[in-house]
Design goal:
Structural class of chain B: mainly beta
Number of strands of chain A: 11
Distance between the termini of chain A: 36 Å
Largest sheet of chain A: 7 strands, mixed
Number of strands of chain B: 12
Shape of chain B: globular
Oligomer: heterodimer
Order of helices and strands of chain A: EEEEEEEEEEE
Number of helices of chain B: 0
Strand content of chain B: over 45%
Largest interface: A-B, 23 and 26 residues
Structural class of chain A: mainly beta
Distance between the termini of chain B: 41 Å
């Protein structure tokens, strides 16, 4: 099992550009999450999904969109990138509510 | 609302010395509890978890944690720290019966190991 994979590992965007961060898991987990991690701030939840076709906002959803068409994939879309979106983004999956989450290696995004 | 507090932002420990990282949580019932470790440039790796039962849980890499309901704490310990333990450590809580909720993470404690 590869677990949770994320692409790309690094990306530099210009202000106003858009991009999609990819996340795939091969553990057949229903729950998937997107976090951003900023220095000294821990992890903040952007969006989550409890199954294919079902998504919901987390703590910091503004400027992002998600979709979940399959169990395996949970892409995160950034529209009109802003410097405030410079961060490290982690995707995670979980077998159920409250259980441990399995994290991908992260995507380091810089918006200049 | 649920919350997690890690009071120590940065701790330095000598190699071979013991370690204790503090974690306090706020939750109405007994939550699920986790410790994760993040090495520089890496994702988060689960060290250990507590769901129920024995309040002293063993994890990977020689770590253990003790759940104390009366103190709402779940402190992480290691009897002898190795240089490779230098990393950032996150405590997290999960709500067992709230559908769709994610884990709540503390802000992390950075561990440095001196020789």
């Amino acid at each position: 099992n590869a677990g949770v994979t994320q692409t790309p590992k690094f990306r530099i965007l210009k202000i106003g550009q858009s991009m999609t961060l990819q996340c795939t898991q091969d553990m057949n987990h229903n729950y998937m999450y997107w976090y951003r991690q900023d220095p000294g701030m821990g992890l903040k939840l952007i969006y989550y999904s409890v199954g294919a076709g079902i998504t919901d906002k987390g703590e910091v959803p503004n400027g992002y969109n998600v979709s979940r068409s399959t169990t395996e994939d949970f892409p995160l879309r950034l529209e009109l990138a802003a410097p405030s979106q410079t961060s490290v983004y982690f995707c995670a999956s979980s077998p159920g509510t409250g259980f441990e989450q399995y994290f991908g290696p992260g995507t380091r995004l810089t918006v200049t | 609302a649920q919350s997690v507090t890690q009071p120590d932002i940065h701790i330095t420990v000598s190699e071979g010395a013991s370690l204790e990282l503090r974690c306090n949580y706020s939750y109405g019932a007994t939550p699920y509890l986790f410790w994760y470790v993040q090495s520089p440039g890496q994702g988060l790796q689960l060290l250990l978890k507590y769901f129920s039962g024995d309040t002293l849980v063993q994890g990977i890499k020689g770590f253990e944690a003790e759940f104390k309901r009366s103190q709402s704490s779940f402190n992480l310990r290691k009897p002898s720290v190795h240089w490779s333990d230098a990393a950032e450590y996150f405590c997290a809580v999960g709500a067992p019966n709230q559908a769709g909720t994610a884990l709540i993470f503390g802000k992390g404690t950075t561990l440095s190991v001196s020789s």
